[in-house]
Each structure stands twice: as structure tokens, then as C-alpha cells.
Specification:
Shape: globular
Helix content: 10-25%
CATH superfamily of the largest domain: Pseudouridine synthase I, catalytic domain, C-terminal subdomain
Largest sheet: 10 strands, mixed
Order of helices and strands: EHEEHEEEHEEEHHE
Number of strands: 10
Radius of gyration: 19 Å
CATH topology of the largest domain: Alpha-Beta Plaits
CATH class of the largest domain: Alpha Beta
Distance between the termini: 40 Å
Number of helices: 5
CATH architecture of the largest domain: 2-Layer Sandwich
Structural class: alpha+beta
Length: about 260
């Protein structure tokens, strides 16, 4: 048996999320189908995290094991030849037996895109949340910085989650505006050692309340302290969310004193 790490990119528009489901078309199902065609055996693919329906990924990490003679680069090419056009394996490399995409993940970075203003960008409808009002990016950036650090993020956790605890560390939360001709976008990037269910989308919905002038910057700190999901903003829609990158054990440089 050989063990592999795959970096996967996909457009989640047509899928009911990553995880296999009985009555839904999923990314995991397509990946495992292609792996079985290439290797001639059933293969279980495990992702670093389960993206929801409509959510995209540029750097999802997937682990799988199979008994194949193919070199990793040949396996990658063969897999891409059998995957649909909205899923691509960017890299496959052989790993030690104990590598596991969930267990070995130590950090993730997400990007959320909002297309704000009076004109809708029809080409961004599957990759950005259209918000008809122009948002105050400076205020959103100031509010976002209040969430950086190690905190209990219960206020930004969707109900029904089964996590052991709600404490996470946000290393970076950046908000900036991108302008292209007459269409603007607000880009929010969040990097942390882990995320609760819908945490990024709930943070975005909360920052939008500040950006539209409904709440002051300091309100976000009050929401965080409350540890109550009802105090935060709405859950932003899934289409604006992209999993940018996943770091596993050994990917980050060792800290030096």
C-alpha cells in the first residue's frame, strides 16, 4: 500500500459540498470515482475539511492510500484526465504511512469576495456575494482586527456543530478593496489554526453589518465576548468563499528563538 497527499482545486458551484452524500453530487464522489478508474480499486479520499455546497477551493489537501505502481506525477495526469473540468489535481506526492489530511492540518487560509455597489457583475455570480450597497472597507478592516488572536469564537459558530471546544487562533484577518473598471469587490482573507462550522461566513456577515453602517466597529468585540451566535451578523452565502491554502505538519518553517 502507498500513501499520497494531493492538492486539489475545484469550483464548488455544481456540487453539494465535498463530503459524499446519498442524494447529492459531491466533490469527494467525483475524486473517488476518478481514482477508482485510474487505479482499478476503490479508494477513500479524505479532505482537510468539508467545504459546503457552493464553496470553492484553490488549495484543498486530500490524503488517500492505494496499491498502485504508477509514479505520483503519472497518477496526477491520469487522474486529471478522468476528473470533470471543474476539478483539478494540482499536485500529488507520496507520503509516509501516517500522513492524514485532517489530523496533520495545522493552518488554513480562506478568502471571501463581496461584489458591492449598484451594478451587478453577472460573471461573478457564482464566485462572489453581490451586495447592492457600497461597503466601508476601512471600518470592516478595523473591526476585523478585533478578532485576531486566540479567542472563543462561539458567536461565529453555526448551531449543531459537534466541536470539542470553540477556541481558535486567527493569525491574520485582512480586508481590502479591489477596483476593476466600474465594478468593485471587497476581499476578506482569514487565516487560522482551525475553523468552526460556518465561522468564516459568519464573520463576513458580521463585518458587513459594520461596513454598511448598521453597527460601530467596537460592536464586533462585544459579539466576540458574548459567545452567542444570535448576537452576530447573518451567515454570508457560500458562493463567495474559497479555501485558499492548507498547511500541514512540516509545511511551516520552524520558529527560531
Amino acid at each position: 500500500m502507498r500513501y499520497f497527499r494531493m492538492t486539489l482545486s475545484y469550483d464548488g458551484t455544481a456540487y453539494g459540498g465535498w463530503q459524499m452524500q446519498v442524494n447529492s453530487h459531491t466533490v469527494q464522489a467525483e475524486v473517488e470515482r476518478a481514482l477508482q478508474i485510474v487505479t482499478g480499486q476503490p479508494v477513500r479520499a479524505v479532505a482537510s475539511g468539508r467545504t459546503d455546497a457552493g464553496v470553492h477551493a484553490m488549495g484543498q489537501i486530500v490524503s488517500f492510500a492505494c496499491d498502485t505502481h504508477l509514479p505520483a506525477d503519472v497518477l496526477q495526469r491520469a487522474l486529471n484526465a478522468n476528473l470533470p473540468k471543474d476539478i483539478v489535481a494540482l499536485e500529488i506526492r507520496e507520503m509516509p504511512e501516517d500522513f492524514h489530511a485532517i489530523r496533520d492540518t495545522v493552518r488554513k487560509r480562506y478568502r471571501y469576495t463581496i461584489q458591492d455597489g449598484p451594478l451587478r457583475d453577472v460573471f461573478a455570480r457564482h464566485h462572489a456575494w453581490y451586495f447592492p450597497l457600497r461597503l466601508d472597507v476601512r471600518a470592516m478592516s478595523q473591526a476585523g482586527r478585533l478578532l485576531v488572536g486566540r479567542h472563543d469564537f462561539s458567536s461565529f459558530e453555526a448551531s449543531g456543530s459537534k466541536r470539542a471546544n470553540s477556541v481558535r487562533t486567527i493569525f491574520d484577518l485582512a480586508v481590502h478593496r479591489q477596483t476593476a473598471e466600474h465594478l468593485d469587490r471587497v476581499v476578506i482573507e482569514v487565516e487560522a489554526d482551525g475553523f468552526l462550522y460556518n465561522m468564516v461566513r459568519n464573520i463576513v456577515g458580521t463585518l458587513v453589518q459594520v461596513g454598511r453602517g448598521k453597527q460601530p466597529v467596537g460592536w464586533v468585540a462585544e459579539v466576540l465576548k458574548a459567545r452567542d451566535r444570535k448576537r452576530a451578523g447573518m451567515t454570508a452565502p457560500p458562493e463567495g468563499l474559497v479555501l485558499l491554502r492548507v498547511w500541514c505538519v512540516g509545511d511551516l518553517p520552524e520558529r527560531t528563538e
